[in-house]
Amino acid sequence: MSEGNRPLARERVIESLEQSAEVYGLSRSAGRIYGVLYFATDPLSIPELVEETGYAKSTVSNVTRTLTRIGLIHRRSSEGGGRRVRFSAEQEIWFILQDVFQQYIQREIQTTLRTIKRAEAQLSEPESHEGERIRELRATYEDLEEITRLATDLSAAELRAALEAYER
Amino acid sequence: MSEGNRPLARERVIESLEQSAEVYGLSRSAGRIYGVLYFATDPLSIPELVEETGYAKSTVSNVTRTLTRIGLIHRRSSEGGGRRVRFSAEQEIWFILQDVFQQYIQREIQTTLRTIKRAEAQLSEPESHEGERIRELRATYEDLEEITRLATDLSAAELRAALEAYER
DNA sequence: CTGTTTGTTCGGTCCAGTCCGAACAAACGA
DNA sequence: TCGTTTGTTCGGACTGGACCGAACAAACAG
Fold first, then answer.
1. Nearest to residue B37, comparing CAs of B5, B64, B8, B2?
2. How would residue A77 be classed by pLDDT, with cut points 50, 70 and 90?
3. In terms of DSSP H, where are the helices of chain B?
4. Where is the HTH marR-type domain (chains A, B) (predicted)?
5. How many C-beta atoms surround the C-beta of residue A75 within 10 A?
């Protein structure tokens, strides 16, 4: 446990990342492991992450797999070197948020929209109250789909610029 | 349990809302209760929601309180009538998403940014590797704060227009 | 005042997710 | 070849959240 001599500021930020992880549906351990990698100067192996975080080897193994799948960290398979796999953090937070956004929100919107359209098609009585509600839902979700489609193509700076340009 | 004679399309959409609720960090019961209220022609009381959803009275009570606090449904305290409180669904999905967005994402970004700034101030060695990482984090989060601040003022149509205007 | 209807609160159960340790597999160095 | 290091997988303990039923509080009808 080498947390004692670590800079306090870094520890505070890592704790904050732990909390953020929970908000985005990940575990606290995922937030800490990402944080340690974010501050690391070099890629770290699983035993090194065990040393740094205090988590069990199995936990680190599972969490790194999840984070790699999502794209939050990168798995560097260094064939030649002594240690076999090493992980580094994706530094561009914006990329991460875009990925999360696409994988959770956009996907969710699309599947919901598909369900709504299917339900609308099999309405026994299209002019009923249910029909009206479903049509309104569809209109909203079509807007949402378009918004997310456009937003995922932009960088943070572009998105900010687009909004600022519209405001005035 | 009067689900048997309900239109199938409506049931499909409600199931979809149950799933959406989970994505946004709410319980499945919250999704169903909102869905029933969304399709209801008139506001419903707690016993009626119990009848429609099959959930226990206590569950309906707790969930309606949560949904009311978030703004997903509205509590109509009808003093004069026989039944005391009645709930109706907020029909504008965009309002709901904005609320969720503000309460979860924006708040999360702001607290994180505050933590980062505090950590940056108490850096013992500002020119270190940690200092550089923390400064980059701060820059990203300031962008994010600005984006969310601008986005929460816009309607769905405006947001879509802003993005479409920027694209071409 | 008493019984009934509505809503809240409280304790408890159940389940899913997190994390751990141990067993196992694979690759390397001696 | 054999021991050591690294990583994965498996079963289980623990925890938090969702949901339930029962007890309780409040308002109304008779």
1. B64
2. confident
3. 8-23, 28-39, 46-53, 57-70, 93-100, 107-121, 129-151, 156-167
4. 19-128
5. 14
B88 touches strand C (CB under 7 A): no
HEC assignment per residue over chain A: CCCCCCCHHHHHHHHHHHHHHHHCCCCHHHHHHHHHHHHCCCCECHHHHHHHHCCCHHHHHHHHHHHHHHCCEEEEECCCCCCCEEEEECCCHHHHHHHHHHHHHHHHHHHHHHHHHHHHHCCCCCCCHHHHHHHHHHHHHHHHHHHHHHHCCCCHHHHHHHHHHHHC
**Cβ contact, residue pair B130, A7, below 8 Å:** yes
For B44-79, the pLDDT digits (tens) are 999 999 999 999 999 999 999 999 999 999 999 765
Which residues in chain B are closer than 8 Å to A146, comparing Cβ atoms? 160
B93/A140 Cβ within 8 A: yes
Residue B154: beta bridge partners? none
Beta partners for A74? A88
Interface of A with B in 99-128 (CB under 8 A): 104-105, 108, 111-112, 115-116, 118-120, 122-125, 128
Flag whether residue B163 sits within 8 Å of chain A, measured between CB atoms: yes
Complex-level ipTM beyond the 0.90 threshold: no
> Could you give the CA distance from residue B104 to residue B22 in angstroms, rounded to a whole number?
14
Phi and psi torsions of B48, nearest 5°: -65, -40
Residue at shortest CA–C1' distance from C20? A56
Q: Are A76 and A87 in contact (CB under 8 A)?
A: yes
Q: Determine the Cα–Cα distance for residues B9 and A137; give it in Å rounded to an integer.
A: 13
